[in-house]
TrEMBL record, chain A:
UniProt keyword NADP present: no
Cofactor(s) needed for function: FAD
Annotated ranges, domain Glucose-methanol-choline oxidoreductase N-terminal: 99-333
GO MF annotations, alphabetized: flavin adenine dinucleotide binding; oxidoreductase activity, acting on CH-OH group of donors
Organism: Alteromonas confluentis
Family that this chain belongs to: Belongs to the GMC oxidoreductase family.
Keyword Flavoprotein: yes
Keyword terms: FAD, Flavoprotein, Oxidoreductase
Superkingdom: Bacteria
Protein name as catalogued: GMC family oxidoreductase
Chain ranges of the Glucose-methanol-choline oxidoreductase C-terminal domain: 424-543
UniProtKB/TrEMBL annotation, chain B:
Keywords: Signal
Keyword Signal among record annotations: yes
Name of the featured protein: Twin-arginine translocation pathway signal
Pfam family, one: Gluconate_2-dh3
Organism in which the protein naturally occurs: Alteromonas confluentis
InterPro entries found in the cross-reference section: Gluconate_2DH_su3, TAT_signal_bac_arc
Keyword check for Signal: yes
Amino acid sequence: MASNTYDAIVVGSGISGGWAAKELTEKGLKVLMLERGQNIEHVKDYINAHKESWDYPHRGLATQDMKEIYPALSRDYPLNEMTLGMWANEQESPYIEKERFDWYRAYQMGGRSLLWGRQSYRLNPEDFMANGKEGIAVDWPIRYEDLSPWYDYVEKYAGISGTREGLSVLPDGHFMPPIPLNAVEKDVAARVKKAFGGSRHFIHSRSANITQGINDIRVGCQFRNKCWLGCPFGGYFSTQSSTLPAAMATGNLTVRPFSIVKEIKYDKDKKRATGVEIIDAETNETYEFNSKIVFVNASAFNSAWLLMNSATDVWEGGLGSSSGELGHNVMDHHFRVGASASVEGYEDSYYFGRRPAGFYVPRFRNWDGDKRDYVRGFGYQGSASRAGWRKDIAELGLGSNLKDAISEPGDWTIGMTAFGEMLPHHDNRIFLDKNKKDKWGLPVLTMDVKIRENEYKMRKDMQKDAVEMFEAAGLKNVQGYDVDYAPGMGIHEMGTARMGRDPKSSVLNKHNQVWDAPNVFVTDGAAMTSASCVNPSLTYMAMTARAADFAVDELKKGNL
Amino acid sequence: MNRRDLLKFITAATGVAFVGGKALAYENLPVVPLSDTGFSKEDVAFFNELGEVIIPRTDTPGAKDADVGSCMAVLVADCYHPTMQKTFKDGLVTLKKRAEKEYGKDFLLLSAEQKMELLSALDEEAKAYNAKKGIYGDVAMSNPNAGAPWDEELVAPHYFSLIKQLVLFSFFTSQVGATKVLRYVAIPTKYEDIPYKKGDRAWAT
């Protein structure tokens, strides 16, 4: 059926899927973007975006019933009344935990681009070489220089606020003015600089919240700190605010929500994918769509899941499994460890507005001659603020004294949390469970991922160094913490279809093509060969734009 | 809407079967009617009385002005773990009995001073009780939705800590509390340092 044929199919509509759709349509391809969940229209469907705490029956809290439906999500902060409905229903889409894995999935138009943390950093040149140098996993098939122009490209379009710092560990990019640091943070930054002689840096975070208007849709951040409700001001990068409008404007994009891509159709004679088969999530009908190329952007685990379910008549483990690495080498960023402290003085200082981001401390371990008993490193994210009504009030008793005391801001405190690199380990894997099925009769994933010795050693420094920095900055009541981490909590799943130089040890080549099906591109977290310690989404954007450019070139040359 | 219906509603709101294709993501649950909470109007009035002792009207509105009682009823019914529900409900009975025993009157008939005296004593007892149970930190600061349905060994703090927590949370997340007692600007448009002088109110969030 002619109407079922496109130049390209993009599976998924999140950060990388949105970029794939934008790039491919702008280059003239007719593109079908498939989204397994419902449509979410920019502004119109951000139904809670203007609600306040008192507008919610439970004031924003998760109820016991919500926890029943979302048992995994309820383990940490993401489950709440404000974003209820933005997360995959765990009863309909279960998974199995051989080891605990907290999997935060957003099955809807825009995916997690609506719900992301927006911290946006470039990997550094060393990140691309560390595996090769240290003999860990496999070498990246690309170098920083391959991606650098594409970082430039996506930063300019996405809009990243930040400051140029000239640090080799955290390459500069194209930035809008930063989200300001407050008086206390500026002071701590100066004290850290003095105490560490420039070997540690306390800088503005780099965030995909725009501090300058771009167009009618992207008016700019209003400092409401309600990003996760969908921003009617287009204040941050999301599919809806950024890539989707561009793709739609070309007239080349068709979007089909409620489309669960079940498998990639594979022609074993031509060694090419021919399209995809989907299940309509509402009607359970199956449909086939054909295309010259397929971009797989379903998020790291679901992209691997889709490959595992495809071409199983050729390879039992699915498309890309000939390497023996499909579904393996799962990475996340381990965190929930750091320090907090109180800040004396600054009683005459306060702030106006609610920031969507704070400060950042780039990696300094195993860098610039430093050598630890573990490899790689970590960065910190944090902020300083004055205590609000939730400050400790046990001693204040009841009545007007209590009311007055907690109605005024309390002392300044500062806190920071480390985000550490997790090594790719072959035994950290996800695989299909053929016995358990989801609502649509599809096999579900089993998670078998643990953090290991390198991460445990690193965590000691992640806490100790935070304490050391705050103490060196002269802060008081410095308290280190490690509140435990379970894989998945970082919401940075990576590595399940890694890039490499050899089809025997990697799923994707240096252009994100599946070795066994060069017209299938995987450009989300699945492609990551190592994790770095920085937030990864900006890298997915750059990788996707690069792969789309290559794909269209190859199509023109008749190579795909 | 009872709990079962609510559960169904949430499932629908988060699933795929939409009536008329209307997007329900981000959508609020409907206001919970009092009849679904298992509490009565009298209960709510009683909660408001307790609230007013903890956060009284001064030159700014107090707990009754914010109707913390209605919010407390919903939070206890929907957000509370069964262990906390039991502690809270048993606690209310204990508190009423204690008023009868110590003052020979229903709590509601006590003078303002007597109410404050009784609740202050309970506040002190709660601190000691929590410390003895190994519950550290200020319970009143936490969100009133601790524990999940499958947590079997949840340890409840003293019931008065629950009351205080519910009052503070309900009050400061209410429109009255957030905008008339604290400060709130819906659309700040910027972030910047500002001077602070003693007496200036804190931001609600």
